[in-house]
Every structure is written in structure tokens, then in C-alpha cells.
Automatic annotation (TrEMBL), chain A:
Its main location: membrane. This is ABC transporter permease. Keywords: Cell inner membrane, Cell membrane, Membrane, Transmembrane, Transmembrane helix, Transport. InterPro entries: MetI-like, MetI-like_sf. The keyword Acetylation does not apply. It is a multi-pass membrane protein. The chain crosses the membrane at residues 7-31, 66-88, 100-124, 130-150, 178-196, 231-250.
TrEMBL record, chain C:
The chain crosses the membrane at residues 12-36, 65-86, 93-110, 149-167, 203-224, 244-267. One of its GO terms (cellular component) is plasma membrane. One of its GO terms (biological process) is transmembrane transport. This is ABC transporter permease. The keyword Transmembrane applies. The lineage of its organism: Bacteria, Pseudomonadati, Pseudomonadota, Alphaproteobacteria, Rhodospirillales. It comes from Azospirillum thiophilum.
Automatic annotation (TrEMBL), chains D, E:
This is ABC transporter ATP-binding protein. It holds the Pfam family ABC_tran. GO terms for biological process: quaternary ammonium group transport. InterPro entries: AAA+_ATPase, ABC_SmlMolc_Importer, ABC_transporter-like_ATP-bd, ABC_transporter-like_CS, Mo/tungstate-bd_C_term_dom, P-loop_NTPase, Transp-assoc_OB_typ2. GO terms for cellular component: ATP-binding cassette (ABC) transporter complex. The keyword Cytoplasm does not apply. It comes from the Bacteria. Keywords: ATP-binding, Nucleotide-binding, Transport. One of its GO terms (molecular function) is ATP binding. Residues 4-234 form the ABC transporter domain.
């Protein structure tokens, strides 16, 4: 495969620069020795990282967020994959409506969902529970998963699946051994995107999180409502480091490319 | 099986004080666990409304204005009698008897002393100083759904011949004179702090408690009450109607009114004590509306009138001022 | 039968967990509110009438969709080529860059927007840099302006576009691009005429995600835009949280929802029809 | 009883009828080829048998059982797809092993069978490679191995050898024949290569525009085509206009200035004579005179284009070292009366013949 | 000066050398075929000329200009891909028109040229169809039309006719020849069909494992192969072991009980005789005795497999109506001394020959 031309590379560098700029600045600020947000002009300090230790609720929230993200995105994938296949593969009555329904949470402002879920969960007694959080997150992240899986499965070469079933693969086996691996980049991206969205959701979660089970972004959000100090930057930076480390480990163990690109491709 | 008491209250420096100095003692004394739900007054009021009929919060702490509303919306239960109520100044009591002011701060003007000195601007002395064209795009004011912003609006009305019952002059003043200076109508105390720290704002209408917290970080910010008078902002607590832990909730409120808690709130969060038995050393009194005389020097606003008109004012505010 | 079975779990989930709360919200939008009385269980369309009649709301909605549209276009214009460039990169670099693109998504919007706020302020790095370079004399205003909101939202949302285009790029046969090159098409033409039409599903997915998120974005416009630059989400937020006028907030929400649905479904239709052969 | 029966099988795409009431019976162990011009419906027919396309009409039975009622994966047949349809995410060996895995063949057996199959198609060293990294012919051989390894009782082959060189193709042909004989596999082969069809098939089915034109053994179809389309499609044919009349020795046909005896009953009047190029030879006398326009080397054969008084003719002669005319030589061509077919000058047949060309 | 020059062109995939120091010069207007077994590097060579693969070594010049330095889209050559590589989102007509559009041909001209090109490949009615809705052969023809319509001065054809039936293929061959003659297009053709290569090419290039084996005119390569690989690859060859010795009439080779005069200088001792199956005939006497094992109809020819005392032999006879032996008949086969080649029993050559088989 040919490489990118100089123009493309310049574009690429600028693009990455744009993406990284605010993150780098947050990381830089995290090392300040001042009591307020500023670039570390008077020497580096780890005091704000140490301060995270004094706020165990950030760490607890981080764990909750991870768990919530993992559970809800996995559930969302389980629901989205069959639905995406139905929509991508079949012409049936109500197809458009079903698709619109599945994508609709995207179009409902999260603040509205937050209020709606809060009232609903309070009514059915799920208020402030982890189950409630998971269910609401499944709803809001499903469109992401669905959209990416749809993009991966529309226009997929059906002949390959035909080949599998001609060799005796049942629908399920055919799905598991052929369709799934082929749409895996879509499914994986879908999962990642779903996870990220769940992990990062604030607006809605603010309403349904209870003090016991709250997510990191909600904690951060509530925290900066009242104090913007370098602690937020330190938590963010720590989160960035953890993320990068996790990605690197994932890359080593499984291969990010393999996950997002799929096997047997260049 | 330990009971859990949910307390919804402000975040930030106030939360730190509560968590470190007030809650542990209460937990120990009563064998309950306290979960702190951070949020500003309006957020917490909204939560109460959402959970109506199935309240998860046991105790709520709100600014006095929103507390009137909470009481009016029947979110609060009656306060049980307890000896500690007899130790309070009268100004702590709220007319309904369902909520109690446990502290007070004052609304005034905060400014960046370093910036003022550098540019040889004299310290502000009057509410009208925020109209100084030198502060173009350098002024920050909370919007009127926040008590500080509301105070500012009422104050401007009063200075121009109006008041709570005739708010027009206030709107006019904001629209014509103040708006050009306003960098942001900023409700979030965190954001307000950040605007100061990044030197984008150098003057603001804000509260004494918040100002104290900012100054405590080492930032050269100074708080003054303008010569026309600062305004008192009460902070009130109530037990939520239908709470499953009513007894503990009542105890918690009583605990907050106790001398020990009152002292801690004063020293760490800048809340003027409402308990007569609290004695603060003079050096600790700076920036705190301390005792009836000092509190008495501050102006009060008429929440009844305000709350009646608030909806209309909000509407006008978003359309005329924040546009 | 098969497609219904396949979508059944999702349908069940949505029927219970989405439709019920939304219907509750819609019903709420018919209620009325008064400051001391709270929400009253009357059924009327007064809230809708208020919004339709008030040009303040028109302005906010218009601004919301203007921002969302610009952000969507920017994301498509920058995100799709970036995904394409990523795909053409050699192995170790590609993984690394993919990570850089996706990484920011894991960092809370709140932190990222904070980063922009630090960069953007009149005393922020961007303005200081530009002034140091002599490009500008007075600071450009990013904070509390639509430009700032658009830039920050683009930053927040562009990875979604990259990811979604990336997924659809995986299906492309590189020989097909070669064929176009052999016929004399330059790299840009190949991208525009051959690659682009084939990744339309990906761009469409990305655009829908980006548009919907941009139109209902709350945290970023709230932080960068401040209170004076209101968008529909912050408006609804205000009604819910500040004035406690939930019925009005619900009405704003329902209208935002309807507008979103109409715009997105409309564009979806249009694009799918235009490129129907790639969607088969 | 017939093993595979297609009964009035029909498929429409919109208003286009791709397969039009096709009926065919195939015996167990038979190898039947589908022949026909590009787009005539061969692939579509196979896809319906395999169950990947729903028929719009007609029935298919295999061993007496209704095949259309079964799911594709229960039909138990092997297919080589025209587009290969390899699993891109699996290596060659994994591709080949997939069907065995589905049949729950144990690991050890499977590995052995996969290795054998890959060896059979000459890819023993390529087991670990992914399809994207293989040449076209290699991919096609993987597809073939994948279908063969499961030893299906019915094998559908859609141009399975089109990207192989002659050597390899021949080997594969022999292999297919061997499998057919020893395993008794019934095969339906789609091929555009007529010599392949001729060499391999027990019977050929000639299709045009979705309709069956003729079902016969290869030699029968070649020597006694049912209609002008078949005649023209199966190898080249010289169609010479002439006049049928009665001579001393019975019916004759006069082509330009040469006269040929006719054994079939043909009405007198304008007629046409059909003779295959390879049945035409260069004769000393008593033939049709002409000039060599071009001679083209084709490996084992030479193709001559001859301009005669009755029009252009093609002549094929074996490249066996015997002396052959050069371009622009004047020659005399002739053929045996048995090798020619005479038909009345039928405008419709003529037009059909033109169309098939 | 040569038009296209490949100089020591090399490509490696990892440790695998797919193309190994290939050097070749092609004159303007020439049609050169690349022949070789599947996986020998034909496609890879074309892809390097086209610029889709970077060469690991060597140079390519076109008309004196360094081609490798140019971007693929500036090389101005036409390609038909083995996998077609049609634009799936465009109709057949749009596919064909794409190259013209790139050349800024006006709308009206373009439409006309596209229509002509589609007509040329017999798809005039399919202009509106998308590739996915076309048969394999139809897709291939669209690919061909797409490359032809831009009238490139250099045309690379990677098995462009592999999915077409004989009729269509022949028409297309004639068309390619015509274009080559009238437009003067230089063409490089990859094909697995030897008769196609023989019929079309000015010269053929035989490749094996990435290396050039022989470059020659078709007949030369066929009749005087450079080595056993070429001999074996280009059509079938009978290799019979024998003993070279001296007889009354000069050098002779004894195969089983038959004796053949040898005209080339060959050292006495064990040797091998190579003779092509189509050069072998059935003789009355004085030949090699054997039994017919199988006879296979191949359209214009019959292929016989004969068991002789010297091993199995293949014999091809034209299907021209002359009487031919049946299976299990005892026969006597013979050939002309000119048609045979005798070589010393070289173990290396023999192994190469086996490998190529
Ligand atoms: N991307 C790749 N990575 C590794 N090996 C490759 C790759 N592409 C091709 N090869 C190998 O290089 C060799 C030459 O491949 P090429 O496609 O040139 O063969 P070919 O001569 O065109 O064969 P065919 O007639 O089967 O199409 C093959 O053995 C193939 O397996
Ligand atoms: N999905 C489709 N939609 C519309 N028409 C189609 C579709 N698939 C095939 N066709 C048409 O049906 C006809 C028969 O196609 P089919 O693939 O069976 O041809 P084929 O005989 O296999 O030809 P080839 O030898 O070229 O592969 C063709 O004319 C083709 O254009
Ligand atoms: C008394 C204060 C702590 C409360 C006030 N509403 C604020 O958020 O600043
Ligand atoms: Mg076909
Ligand atoms: Mg090839």
C-alpha cells in the first residue's frame, strides 16, 4: 500500500496537534506547584497528584466508571449486533422505524433523558442503583454501537457467508466464524465507542448517579462546579496516563490494529 | 446494618469542611453513615422535585431564597424542637418553621488586587464601580438564578429608585451600563475562580465565603462590601418530607447548629455563625459576617416578593440581559 | 420473521426503558407550572404556544442547529481524510496514531473543555502565541463566542467521525483505488470520486452521531459559551434546574428531539437515496 | 431414479428473467457442464441449487428430497464460487479446514485432510498465508480445495479453473475426474472453456438467455447441434450460403462453383451448408477455391482464414509438422460429405446464429 | 529504441522473492504475453509497472523516461485487473467513463465513447447496471472496456478474458489485435490460456518462480523451448527415456524396441526424447507399440493416452472425421524425426520438467 504524500502528512500532524493540544495543556497544568490553574512556571510539583490520594472518591468513581462502561457497552453490543444485521440484511416492514427507534437516543438531549430516567427509575424503585445506571447507559450508547456495526455490515460480501453455509455452517456458526470476524472491526469500534460514551457521559448521569455509585466524570463535573483547581487537571492527567497504559497493554497483548483493523488485512 | 443518611448540599470548600470537620463527629456520635450529595442550590432543588414521592435525600441545604421555594413546594418537613434552637439568633429562624438558617455570608465585590495595583485603579467602594468602562469584558457576575446575581439585580434596582417591587430600573441598569463590561454571567463558583486565576476577570459580584476560599489558595483577591451595603445570604437546612431517616435527619440539622460545627463552618468555610454561644477569636473573624451587629449592617432582600416575581424576572433576564 | 427476532431484544429494551420515560416527558410538557405551586397536572399546549410565539426560543434553536451543522461539516471535512490517511499508514505508526485519535475520547469532556478554556482565554496560550508571532494585535475572542464553541465541539466530536469512517474504510478493496489511479485520477480525485462514495455509510453514521451530539451538547457550550450563548440543551437545563419549570423544559426537549429527528432522518434518507447502491 | 432434478426452475431480477424454466435431471455420479455465453444464467442457476438465491418458480429435488425447503447449510453440497468467496480473515489452511470443522472432524484428521487437499492443489507451502497475500490462481485453488476436502456428494463448480494455467488446469481436470469416478461425486460444472467441458463432462447443457438449448453428450452436441445457436456456440462453424438442387447422384448443394452431395432430406431452393473448421482440409482438387487471408498459430493448431467465392471460411489444421499453406497462397479447401450439415436458408435460424456469434 | 524497458526488476514479500531480476524490452506497438504457472509473479510484475507496488530493485523506463519515479496516476497506462477492481458504487457506464472524465473529455464525446466501448464488449444494454448486479463475465468485460476506452499507449492486461466463453473471448482477442494494429497500443498480457497467448502475442515471456525462462516468438518458444520447463509448460510434451547410440545411418536413439534417427549432436549414452502429442500420429508400422488407455474428446481434438513399453504417452489428433482408434485398441504410434528433440538424460533438467508439470 502506498504511503501518504507530504500534504497528507502535514495535515495529519496538524490534526494530531489539534487533538492533543488541550490534553497536553491539561497534563502540563497538572504539574504546577501553584494552588490554582497555571502552567508550571515556578518548577514542577507532584502535589496535585498526591492530592488525588486524599480524595479516594475519585478512585472509587474511576472504578465504578470502568465497571459501568464495560458492562453497559457489552450489553449494548449484544443487543446491537443482531439488530444491525437485521437492518443491514433484510428488507422488512418497519425496518426504517426500528432503525430510527434504535438511533433515537442520540437525538434526545441527554439532559432530557436524565430527568426522564430519574423520574422513571424513582417510580419503579431503581433510583440511584447500579442497575439503573447500566440500563440507562445501554440505552444511550446503543446508537453508537449500532451505527458502527451497521456501517461495517452493509455492503459486506454475502458470497463469503454463502460459502460458509454451503460448507455446513449453521446460521449461528456462520455468524460466529465468518460474519462476526469480518464485521469485527465494526463491532470492536462499536464497543470502544460505546464504552467511551458510557465512560464519559456526564449530563445524563449527573441525574441518576447516586452518591454511592457515581462515575468519574460526574465527580469531576461536580467538583469543578465548585472548585477549579489543579486537582482536576491532575485527575485528568492521571486518567490520561492510565488510558495510554491500558491501550499499550492491549496493543501488546492483543494488538490494537488486529482489533480495529481485523485479521488478514494489510 | 448501618443506616445511611443522605445530605445534599453545596460542593467545593463547603463540602471539604463538611466532610472533614462536621460529618465524622456526627457519624461517630450517632452510628450512621452520611452520604454527601454535592450540588448547587438549584440542582439540589431540582433533584427534590424529580424524586417527589420517593425521596432519597434526607437533609437538604439550600440558599435561603431557594429554601423558601422548597418549603413552598412542600419538600420540607417540620423541624422538631430541640434545645439547640434556643441558642440561635433570631435571624436564623425562617418564618415557616420548616427550615433553619445555619449560617450567613455576604454578597459584595471581589477584585484582583494585584491587577488593580498594577493599573493604579483604586479599590472599588460602590456597587456602581462595576460599571467603570475600564472593566470592559473584565467583570463577572453570577446570573439571577444564583442568589448573588439576584442580589446584584435587586441592588441595582434599589440604587436607581426601584426595588423588589419595582425591578425595572435594575434591568435597565444591567442592560445599559453593566452588560458591556460583563465577560460572563457565571454561576459556577469553580468557573468564577478560574476566570480570576487566568486574569480574564478582575472584578466580580460574589460572596464572602467563596472569596475567602479563593484568597486561601494564595491568590491576591480581595473582597469588599460596597458603601451602599453588602447583602446577607443565608444558608438553610431542612429535613425532607417523607425521609426514611427522619430522626437522624433532625439530629444532623441539630448537629450543624451546635457550637462545634458552627465554629468549624466559620473558620473553614467563612460562614457567619448563628449560634450565640460561638466565640471566634478576632483574627479569625476577618471576612465573616459575625454576630447580629455585623449581620445587621448587611442589607436583606424580600424573598417573598422576589420568589413571586422570579419566573417573570428569569424570563426577562434571559431575553434582555443574557442575550 | 428473522429480522424481527433479531431486533426483538433491542425493541423490548427500548420499549420499556426509552419509550416509557419519553412518553412521561411528553406528558410532562403538557403540564403547567407555577413558582410556588409546582407542576400542575393539567393538559394543555400552552408551553408549545409560548415557544412557537417567542423569538427568543427561535434564536436559541437556530443557534443550536447552526453550531451543530458547522461542527458536523468540520468533523466530516477533517475526520474523514484523517481516517483515510490513518489507513494508509504503515503498521506501527498506524496503531500509535489511532491511539492518539481515540485516546482523547476517554478523557472526560469536562477535562478537555477545560483544556480549551485554558488555551482560549484572552490570556490563553493561543492568543499569546498569535500575539507573540505578531499575527494579531488584540486577543481574538474565543471564549463565549460561537467560534470557540465550534472549535471545542469539533475537538470533542471529531474522533467519532474518524472511528466511524475507519470502520467503513475496512471494506474497501485497495485494487479499486489502484484502478482509479491507473485511469489517471490524482490522489485527491481518487479520494473524492472512488473512496468517498464508498465510505458514505461511514460518514453518514459519523455525521449523525456528531450532529446529534453537537445539537444536544451541554457541557461544552456551557463552559465555553457561557450563559449568554445559549443552546437548546443549556436552555432546557436552565428550565429544569434553575427555574424548575419542568413542563417548559420538557417542551424544549420534545421540540429539540423532534427537530433532531426530522433533520437527521431527512438527511439520512437523502444520502441513502443518493448513494443507494453502496447501501445495498 | 435421477439424483438431482431441476424442474421448471425460474429466477427473475426485476423484469429481467435470468433463468427461465430450466428443467434438467442429473444422475448420481454424473458430471454435467453448463455452457453458455456470459450472462446467460449459469451462476444464477447454481446459486439457486445451493440455496443462496430464492427461486421465483420451479422445484429442485436431490435424491428425492425437496431441496428448496432446506436451509443452505443443510444441503450438504460443495461449491466453488466464481468469485472464490474465500474467508479473508482466515489462512488458506483455515479456509480449507472450515468445512471439516463444521462436520466435527477431529483436529488430527482435519490437519491431515487439509494438508492433503492443499497438496492436491499444489499449495502445500501456502497453508499459513491469508488470501489477500496470494495470487489469483492460488486463491482459486484454495477455493477448490475448500470445496473438495469435504467430499460432498454434489459439487457445484462455477468456473473453478478459470485462473489456472493450462498445466495446472489439466491436472485439476484429471483430479476432478478421478474424484468423480472414485468417490462417485455428482458434479455440475460451469465453465467458459469448451475443451474443458468437452473433456470432462458426461453431458453438457447449453444455455442461452436463461433457457436450455440442448442437453446432450459433448460429442453429440458438437456434432449434432440442436440449433444454430448451439452449433455456433460450441466451437466455430462455417456457414456457407448455397443452392440446394437435384443432381445425377441425388440431392446436391452448390456452393459457389463447387458441388456437394447431400444425404439429409432438404427441400430444394436456397440453403446453407455448415461445416466445422477442423473438418475442413486443404485438398488438391474438387474443392472450393480461395486465398489464405491470415494464419494464426494457436499452439497445437493453426487457424486459417480463407477468402472464398462463397465468403470467408475458417480452417483449423493440426500443428503436426505437415506442410501448410502460407498467407496469400491460393488454396483449394474440401470436406467429407458426412461432416457437413445442410439446412434450408431459414432467416430466423440465421439471425439466431448471428446473435450467438 | 525500446519503448518499455524492465531492468532487473525485483520484488520481495518478506523473504519470498516474487519477482527476481526480471529484464525485458518491449517495442512500441508490440504485444507481449507473460506466461507462467500460478503464483510465478505475473501480477506482481504488472503491479510494479503500474506503480501499485514499490519495486525492491531494478528500473522501469517507458519511452526513455524513468517510470518508477512517476506517480501511478501520471503513468497514463491502462490496466485490466485480475480481480476486475470495478468501482462498486458506479454503473457500468460510469465505470467506463471515469478515465475519460479524468482526461476532461466533454460530456457528449464521453457518452459516445462509453457507448462505443460498451458495445465493443457486448454490453450496450447494461450501461445502467451496477457491478454487483452483473455476472462474472459481464464484470470482466466492463473492466476491459474501462481500460480500452482511454486508448492508453501502454495497456496491461491481467487475465482479461478468463471469465469469457470461447466465442466472446475470440471476439475480444480479435478486438485487441485490431486495437494494437490500428492504434499502435503496446500491450502486456498476462494469460493462463496458452492458445490465447500463442494466437495474440508477438512475443511470449515465460516466467517461473519470478525468473524469466525464455523470451521468444510463440512458435519459437513452442518449437524450440529454451529448457525443459518451457517445453513442459507450453503445451504437453512426451518425454521418453531411451539410449543414444550409433547405427548404420548415423546417430540413433532407441526407445523400447523402436529406433529413431537423431539429427542433433548428442553424446551417446542414456538420453531422452521429447515429442509433442500433436506431432505424434497413428502409423501402420515402424513405430512404437502401445495400447489406448483413454480417449478424451476436447472439441476440435481428441486426446489419447497410450501405454507404451517406454511409458505413458499422450497423442492428440484432430477431430476431422478420419477414423481413430478406440479405448483398449492396440496401436502403433510414430512421428517425424524433425518434430522430436533429443537431449541427454540430465537429472537436473528432468527434475525441472517434473516440477513444471
Ligand atoms: N501481499 C503479498 N504478500 C506475500 N506474498 C504475496 C503477496 N502478493 C503475492 N504474493 C506471492 O507472490 C507470488 C507471486 O504472486 P502473483 O500474484 O504475482 O502471481 P501470478 O503470477 O499473478 O499468479 P496467478 O496466475 O495465480 O494470478 C505468489 O506466490 C504469491 O503468493
Ligand atoms: N443481483 C442481480 N440483479 C439484477 N440482475 C442480475 C443480478 N445478478 C445477475 N443478474 C443478471 O442476470 C443474468 C445472469 O447472471 P449470471 O451471473 O447467472 O450469469 P452467468 O451465466 O453466470 O455469466 P458469466 O459467465 O458471465 O458468469 C446476467 O445478465 C446478470 O446481469
Ligand atoms: C452560601 C454559598 C456556599 C452558597 C452559594 N449559592 C454558592 O454557591 O456560592
Ligand atoms: Mg457466472
Ligand atoms: Mg495473477
Amino acid at each position: 500500500m502506498n504511503r501518504n504524500g507530504p500534504v497528507a502528512l502535514i495535515f495529519h500532524v496538524l490534526f494530531l496537534g489539534f487533538l492533543l493540544a488541550p490534553i497536553l495543556i491539561v497534563c502540563a497544568v497538572a504539574f504546577t506547584s501553584e494552588g490554582y490553574l497555571s502552567l508550571p512556571t515556578n518548577g514542577l510539583s507532584l502535589r496535585w497528584f498526591r492530592a488525588i490520594g486524599d480524595n479516594p472518591e475519585f478512585i472509587r468513581a474511576f472504578k465504578d466508571s470502568l465497571l459501568l462502561g464495560a458492562v453497559s457497552s457489552t450489553l449494548a453490543i449484544l443487543v446491537a449486533v443482531p439488530a444491525a444485521l437485521a437492518i443491514a440484511r433484510h428488507q422488512f416492514f418497519g425496518r426504517e422505524a426500528i432503525q430510527a427507534l434504535f438511533l433515537s437516543p442520540l437525538m434526545v438531549p441527554h439532559i432530557v433523558l436524565g430527568i426522564a430516567f430519574l423520574r422513571f427509575f424513582t417510580m419503579i424503585g431503581l433510583g440511584g442503583t447500579f442497575v439503573g445506571l447500566v440500563l440507562s447507559h445501554v440505552i444511550i450508547i446503543l446508537p453508537f454501537a449500532l451505527r458502527l456495526i451497521l456501517a461495517a455490515s452493509t455492503g459486506m460480501d454475502r458470497a463469503v457467508e454463502n460459502a460458509a453455509s454451503s460448507l455446513g455452517a449453521s446460521s449461528w456458526t456462520c455468524f460466529r466464524r465468518v460474519t462476526l470476524p469480518l464485521i469485527l472491526p465494526g463491532v470492536a469500534s462499536g464497543w470502544v465507542l460505546a464504552f467511551i460514551n458510557s465512560f464519559d457521559e456526564v449530563t445524563m448521569t449527573v441525574f441518576i448517579a447516586s452518591p454511592e455509585t457515581t462515575t468519574l466524570p460526574v465527580r469531576l463535573f461536580l467538583y469543578i462546579q465548585d472548585n477549579i483547581d489543579p486537582l482536576v487537571a491532575a485527575v485528568s492527567a492521571a486518567l490520561i496516563f492510565v488510558t495510554v497504559a491500558a491501550m499499550l497493554v492491549l496493543d501488546r497483548v492483543y494488538g490494537l490494529e488486529r482489533l480495529l483493523v481485523g485479521k488478514g488485512r494489510d | 446494618q448501618e443506616k445511611t443518611l443522605y445530605v445534599a448540599a453545596y460542593g467545593g470548600s463547603f463540602e471539604q469542611t463538611m466532610r472533614k470537620e462536621i460529618i465524622p463527629a456526627f457519624e461517630k456520635a450517632n452510628g450512621v453513615k452520611v452520604e454527601y450529595v454535592a450540588g448547587n442550590s438549584t440542582d439540589n432543588l431540582a433533584k427534590l422535585q424529580a424524586q417527589k414521592g420517593n425521596q432519597q435525600i434526607d437533609v437538604v441545604i439550600l440558599d435561603d431564597g431557594p429554601m423558601y421555594q422548597a418549603v413552598a413546594l412542600n419538600f420540607c418537613a417540620d423541624l422538631e424542637k430541640a434545645p439547640v434552637y434556643d441558642q440561635l439568633y433570631d435571624l436564623a429562624k425562617m418564618p415557616s418553621g420548616k427550615a433553619i438558617n445555619f449560617g450567613a455570608v455576604g454578597t459584595g465585590i471581589l477584585y484582583n488586587k494585584a491587577y488593580f495595583d498594577e493599573n493604579k485603579i483604586p479599590a472599588p467602594t460602590s456597587w456602581k464601580d462595576i460599571e467603570d468602562p475600564r472593566f470592559k469584558k473584565k467583570l463577572a457576575i453570577p446570573p439571577i438564578n444564583n442568589s448573588y446575581g439576584l442580589h446584584a439585580l435587586v441592588m441595582m434596582a434599589r440604587l436607581n429608585g426601584g426595588g423588589e417591587t419595582n425591578i425595572d430600573p435594575g434591568f435597565k441598569e444591567f442592560k445599559d451600563k453593566i452588560n458591556p463590561n460583563v465577560l460572563a454571567y457565571e454561576p459556577s463558583p469553580g468557573k468564577m475562580t478560574e476566570l480570576f486565576q487566568s486574569n480574564q476577570a478582575v472584578i466580580a459580584v460574589w460572596g464572602s465565603g467563596r472569596a475567602k476560599a479563593l484568597a486561601d489558595t494564595g491568590f491576591p483577591a480581595t473582597f469588599v462590601y460596597p458603601k451602599e451595603g453588602g447583602i446577607v445570604l443565608g444558608s438553610a437546612a431542612c429535613q425532607i418530607a417523607g425521609s426514611k431517616n427522619a430522626a437522624e435527619a433532625q439530629k444532623f440539622i441539630q448537629h450543624m447548629l451546635g457550637a462545634e460545627a458552627q465554629t468549624a463552618l466559620a473558620v473553614s468555610a467563612g460562614f457567619g455563625p448563628v449560634n450565640k454561644t460561638v466565640e471566634l477569636p478576632v483574627e479569625k473573624q476577618a471576612g465573616i459576617p459575625y454576630g447580629p451587629e455585623q449581620v445587621g449592617k448587611l442589607l436583606v432582600v424580600d424573598w417573598d416578593t422576589i420568589n413571586k416575581n422570579r419566573e417573570v424576572w428569569n424570563k426577562r433576564w434571559t431575553r434582555e440581559i443574557e442575550r | 420473521m428473522v429480522p424481527y427476532l433479531l431486533s426483538a431484544p433491542g425493541l423490548a429494551l427500548f420499549a420499556v426503558l426509552l419509550l416509557v420515560p419519553l412518553v412521561m416527558t411528553f406528558l410532562l410538557s403538557l403540564n403547567s407550572f407555577s413558582f410556588y405551586g409546582g407542576i400542575e397536572n393539567v393538559w394543555q399546549l400552552g408551553n408549545y404556544a409560548d415557544i412557537v410565539a417567542d423569538d427568543y426560543f427561535h434564536e436559541v434553536f437556530l443557534r443550536t442547529f447552526r453550531i451543530a451543522a458547522v461542527v458536523t461539516i468540520l468533523c466530516a471535512v477533517f475526520g474523514a481524510p484523517e481516517a483515510y490517511i490513518l489507513r494508509r499508514m504503515k503498521s506501527p505508526w498506524r496503531g500509535l496514531c489511532l491511539l492518539i485519535v481515540l485516546g482523547p475520547l476517554l478523557i472526560s469532556v469536562v477535562s478537555r473543555t477545560l483544556g480549551w478554556a485554558l488555551l482560549f482565554g484572552s490570556t490563553g496560550l493561543v492568543n499569546q502565541g498569535l500575539m507573540a508571532l505578531g499575527l494579531i494585535a488584540t486577543p481574538i475572542e474565543f471564549m463565549y463566542t460561537e467560534t470557540g464553541v465550534v472549535i471545542a465541539l469539533t475537538h470533542v466530536l471529531v474522533p467519532f467521525m474518524v472511528l466511524s469512517v475507519w470502520a467503513s474504510l475496512q471494506r474497501l478493496d485497495p485494487q479499486v483505488e489502484n484502478a482509479a489511479l491507473s485511469l489517471g485520477a490524482g490522489p485527491l480525485t481518487v479520494m473524492r470520486r472512488v473512496v468517498l462514495p464508498q465510505i458514505v455509510p461511514g460518514i453518514l453514521s459519523g455525521s449523525i452521531i456528531v450532529f446529534a451530539l453537537a445539537a444536544s451538547a451541554f457541557a461544552t457550550p456551557a463552559i465555553i459559551g457561557g450563559r449568554r450563548l445559549k443552546v437548546a440543551a443549556t436552555l432546557a437545563y436552565d428550565e429544569f434546574l434553575n427555574t424548575l419549570n419542568w413542563p417548559l423544559g420538557a417542551t424544549v426537549a420534545v421540540l429539540l428531539l423532534i427537530a433532531n429527528v426530522v433533520i437527521i432522518v431527512g438527511c439520512n434518507r437523502l444520502v441513502e437515496r443518493r448513494y443507494k447502491q453502496v447501501f445495498e | 431414479m435421477a439424483y438431482l432434478v431441476l424442474d421448471q426452475l425460474t429466477k427473475r431480477f426485476g423484469t429481467w428473467t435470468a433463468v427461465d424454466h430450466v428443467s434438467l435431471t442429473v444422475e448420481k455420479g454424473e458430471l454435467v457442464s453448463l455452457l453458455g455465453p456470459s450472462g446467460c444464467g449459469k451462476t444464477t442457476t447454481l446459486q439457486m441449487i445451493a440455496g443462496f438465491l430464492d427461486a421465483d418458480g420451479g422445484r429442485v429435488t436431490l435424491d428425492g428430497q425437496d431441496l428448496l425447503a432446506k436451509k443452505p447449510n443443510e444441503r450438504g453440497l460443495g461449491i466453488v464460487f466464481q468469485s472464490y468467496a474465500l474467508f479473508p480473515h482466515m489462512t488458506a489452511a483455515e479456509n480449507v479446514g472450515f468445512g471439516l470443522e463444521m462436520r466435527k472432524v477431529g483436529r488430527a484428521d482435519r490437519d491431515r485432510m487439509v494438508a492433503d487437499a492443499l497438496k492436491l492443489v499444489g499449495l502445500e507451502q501456502y497453508g499459513d498465508r491469508h488470501p489477500r497475500r496470494m495470487s489469483g490462481g492460488q486463491q482459486q485453488r484454495v477455493a477448490l480445495a475448500r470445496a473438495l476436502v469435504i467430499k460432498p456428494s454434489l459439487l457445484l463448480l462455477d468456473e473453478p479453473l478459470s485462473n489456472l494455467d493450462a498445466k495446472m488446469r489439466e491436472e485439476m481436470q484429471i483430479e476432478l475426474r478421478r474424484i468423480q469416478r472414485t468417490v462417485g461425486t455428482t458434479m455440475i460444472l460451469v465453465t467458459h472453456d469448451q475443451s474443458e467441458a468437452m473433456a470432462l463432462s458426461d453431458r453438457v447443457v447449453v444455455l442461452n438467455k436463461g433457457r436450455i438449448q440442448q442437453v446432450a453428450t459433448p460429442q453429440e452436441a458438437y456434432d449434432r447441434p440442436a440449433n444454430a445457436f448451439v452449433a455456433n456456440f460450441l466451437g466455430r462453424t462455417n456457414l456457407l450460403p448455397g443452392m440446394v438442387g437435384s443432381g445425377a447422384a441425388g440431392t446436391v448443394i452448390t456452393i459457389a462453383d463447387s458441388v456437394w452431395p447431400v444425404s439429409q432430406p432438404v427441400p430444394p431452393g436456397p440453403g446453407a451448408l455448415a461445416v466445422r473448421p477442423e473438418k475442413v482440409g486443404f485438398v488438391g482438387e474438387g474443392g472450393l477455391g480461395g486465398t489464405v487471408l491470415a494464419r494464426v498459430f494457436q499452439g497445437t493448431q493453426w487457424l486459417f482464414e480463407i477468402e472464398t467465392a462463397a465468403g470467408r471460411m475458417m480452417v483449423i489444421r493440426q500443428h503436426d509438422g505437415s506442410p501448410l499453406p502460407a498467407e496469400r497462397d491460393r488454396v483449394m479447401v474440401g470436406w467429407r460429405a458426412d461432416d457437413m450439415a445442410v439446412m434450408p436458408a431459414d432467416p430466423e435460424a440465421a439471425s439466431a446464429a448471428r446473435e450467438a456469434a
